[in-house]
Amino acid sequence: MQLPTNSGKAAVNRIYMNLAILDVTDKGLKVKEMAPGVVSFEWHLQAVTEAKLIP
Hints:
Layout: E1 14-16, E2 20-25, E3 28-34, H1 41-48, E4 53-54
Parallel strand pairs: 3-4
Antiparallel strand pairs: 1-2, 2-3
């Protein structure tokens, strides 16, 4: 299986996770919305995400 040549960072603007919705920016992933029960992006989201998160 081959991926399209445009797949990658420039092709993705938003990421939908079960814990949050994240916008892709040049500085990192910006937390747009957190799921009910997620009280802190540092404790919940950053712990399971390797990319830098921006509150």
